[in-house]
Amino acid sequence: MRAEVHINPDQVGFLFDLDGVLVDTARFHFQAWRQLAQELGSDFTEAQNEQLKGVSRKESLEKILNWGGIRLNKQDFEHYMALKNEWYLELVRTLTPSDILPGAEAFLIEARNQGIGIALGSASKNAVLILEQLKIDHLLDAVIDGTQVERSKPHPEVFLKGARALGKEPAHCVVFEDAVAGIEAAKAGGMRSIGIGTDDNLGEADLVRASLAEVNVEEALNIL
Ligand code: B16
Ligand code: MG
Predict the structure, then answer these.
(1) Cys-Cys with 173: which of 63, 94, 95, 191 at CB 3.0–4.6 Å?
(2) Of 119, 103, 95, 120, nearest to 27 (Cα)?
(3) Is the CB of 154 under 6 A from ligand 1?
(4) Residue 2 belongs to a domain
């Protein structure tokens, strides 16, 4: 067992993934990508969609094209990525605060009240709009998203930038993630992690819970 180390909450950073942790837009991504695949004469399943979670827009399209054995030139690739995003954004604009996942807002407020730094670490280039739709942007001290990183998860760049923006040591940060690549990114960055989902795929996390409604700030601090 690790010796108990007491770290003051004001030295701690909590880094949150967006999709699958604070809100579920995976169903919107699925709908928009599927529409695009069909436009290209292809299709893919909900099980395959699991492989797109946490993955960047560009890598998602690469996977879908691979599944369908489709090749596109650079110009068409850019065109279809933009088209999917237009369809996705139409769905995102329907989001309201009632779409915040169970327990997420209360958890952010409790962590803030304890003086913990809070940052977003998302692969999405639409993160700012989504946070505004949900009206939780004011609960975050820093937002690092797909517009600010060059390397996708499992590379730790997004979380290391989040820790830096908060002025916290990576070893004093806890990452909340629903994707395997995100848990790997936290590890690669020297951070602790809490998997939001199930043990079968997130078993590498330091703790796994079905949702933020089932985690309390104390136990999150205790894994540091
Ligand atoms: P966008 P996260 C990720 O969000 C999604 O899980 C993933 O499915 C999506 O492809 C990616 O954002 C990029 O999204 O097209 O909006 O830039 O889980 O890292 O918050
Ligand atoms: Mg996610």
Answers:
(1) 191
(2) 95
(3) no
(4) no
Q: Which domain holds residue 76?
A: 26-92
From ligand 2's centre to the CA of 178, what distance in Å?
5
Cα distances (angstroms) measured from residue 152 to each of 72, 145, 184 = 22, 10, 11
Last residue of a domain, one of 92, 110, 129: 92
The DSSP-derived string for 23-37 is B--HHHHHHHHHHHH
Q: What is the mean pLDDT of residues 93-109?
A: 98
Is 17 catalytic? The answer is yes
Please, how many CA atoms are within 13 Å of residue 46, restricted to the half-sphere of its CB?
3
Band the pLDDT of 213: cuts 50, 70, 90.
Answer: very high
Do residues 138 and 76 share a domain? Answer: no
SS3 track for 80-103: HHHHHHHHHHHHHCCCCHHHECCC
Average pLDDT of the segment spanning 147-157: 96
Say whether 99 is catalytic. Answer: no
Whole-angstrom distance, CA of residue 133 vs CA of residue 97: 7
Ligand nearest, relative to CA of residue 121: 1
Q: Is the CB of 20 under 6 A from ligand 1?
A: yes
- DSSP E strand boundaries for 70-214: 117-121, 142-144, 173-177, 192-196, 207-209
Cβ–ligand 1 distance for 49 under 6 Å, the answer: no
Q: How far is Cα 22 from Cα 123, in angstroms, rounded to an integer?
A: 14
